[in-house]
Amino acid sequence: MKKLVLFLVSFTAWLVLTWTIYYPALLIGILISIIIGFWFGDLFTQRPRHFFQIKRLLYLLYYIPIFLYYCTLANLDVAYRVLHPYLPI
């Protein structure tokens, strides 16, 4: 179960990073995800049943807008500091 969870997470990360449905890219992603799942599956999570709980996914959906808000604020702050003529560091 641990290896399957790691396979799904790593393949999802592969799909997000490559952002393509080109057949050879999908095969390479599946192959690499299987290798990662077999090598590191025992080290990934202690309780794989708890990994896909609805409560955890709801917390993630709650966290994403907050994270994006503060990430945007931080980026605007850095842009202000870089572009400000007196450089208030």
UniProtKB/TrEMBL annotation:
InterPro entries: Cation_antiport_E (IPR002758). The keyword Transmembrane helix applies. GO terms for molecular function: monoatomic cation transmembrane transporter activity. Keywords: Cell membrane, Membrane, Transmembrane, Transmembrane helix. It is a multi-pass membrane protein. It is found in: Cell membrane. The chain crosses the membrane at residues 57-76. The keyword Transmembrane applies. Pfam families: MNHE. GO terms for cellular component: plasma membrane. It comes from the Bacteria. Belongs to the CPA3 antiporters (TC 2.A.63) subunit E family. This is Na+/H+ antiporter subunit E. It comes from Aerophobetes bacterium. The lineage of its organism: Bacteria, Candidatus Aerophobota.
